[in-house]
Amino acid sequence: MKPVYLDNNATTMVAPEVVEAMLPYLSEYYGNPSSMHSFGGHVGLRLKQARIDIAGVLGCQPDEIIFNSCGSEGDNTAILSALAAQPDKRHIVTTRVEHPAILSLAKHLEEKGYEVTYLGVDEKGRLDLDELGQAIRKDTAIVSIMYANNETGVIFPIPEIAALCKARGVLLHTDAVQAVGKIDIDLATLPVSMLSLSGHKLHAPKGVGVLFVRKGTPFRPFLIGGHQERG
């Protein structure tokens, strides 16, 4: 009996056209894109084009795109960066239904002395925006709320949340792993500070992710020492 795969919400097959596009860079063009020589420069140009392509999907600028390994890395980077860039702010707001990449980090940070407010949801999985507004404090470093829930499919009102956070002067990160490619997202008009996505949800290989960081957002790198992705 031929198995039928019904779990695309968890991960997708790498699309044949993606495999075809990648093959030359797994064999013939294997240079370091950060190198000064032309062999690596050819790869660097393709990487630059990939950044332009992703920015076109999200409606942002190419230099606002940071490539990384996955959504979990993007989630961690966003929150840890917000805390590192604002050391006087030690409070985080998130929800009780986030991905473990957010919730596990939040619990870890609580053990380090940070405060976390976990917003609840109603019987339909919906968020109360009034509760969010009340949770934001002067020492709130970042609000992190997913765009679409990976278990229930509930879509959170990120445009309204973004407007609220912007009015309160607080950074907003959204885990859009389950939203990109399914919901129209235009970061030119959606005022989130940071957004993370993962390629394997979109027929790309595992181990490929993106963190959008809006120009002007205070940012500190998660990984230290490499020159890739502008440090």
Please bin the fraction of helical residues: 25-40%
* Rg: 19 Å
Give the neighbour order of strands across the main sheet: 1-7-6-5-4-2-3
Mean of residue pLDDT? 96
Coarse shape? globular
Number of helices: 6
Total beta strand runs: 7
Amino-to-carboxy terminus distance: 50 Å
Coarse structural class: alpha/beta
Low-pLDDT sequence parts: none
Biggest sheet character: 7 strands, mixed
Keyphrases for this structure?
15% strand, 6 helices, alpha/beta, 231 residues, seven-stranded mixed β-sheet, single chain
Write the layout of secondary structure elements.
Blueprint: H1 16-26, H2 38-58, E1 65-68, H3 71-85, E2 91-95, H4 100-111, E3 115-119, H5 129-135, E4 140-144, H6 158-168, E5 171-175, E6 194-198, E7 209-213
Parallel strand pairs: 2-3, 2-4, 4-5, 5-6
Antiparallel strand pairs: 1-7, 6-7
Helix pairs in contact: 3-4
Summary, kept brief:
The protein is of the alpha/beta class and 231 residues long. Helix content is 33%, strand content 15%. Strand 4 (140-144), helix 6 and strand 5 (171-175) form a beta-alpha-beta unit.
Would you mind describing this structure in some detail?
This protein is α/β, with parallel strands linked by helices. It has 6 helices and 7 strands, in the order ααβαβαβαβαβββ. The protein has helices spanning 16-26, 38-58, 71-85, 100-111, 129-135, 158-168, and strands spanning 65-68, 91-95, 115-119, 140-144, 171-175, 194-198, 209-213. Strands 1-7-6-5-4-2-3 form a 7-stranded mixed sheet, with helices on both faces. Helix 3 runs parallel beside helix 4. The longest helix is centred in the first third of the chain and has 21 residues, at 38-58. The radius of gyration is 19 Å and the shape is globular. The protein starts with 15 loop residues before the first helix and ends in an 18-residue tail after the last strand. 30% of the residues are buried.
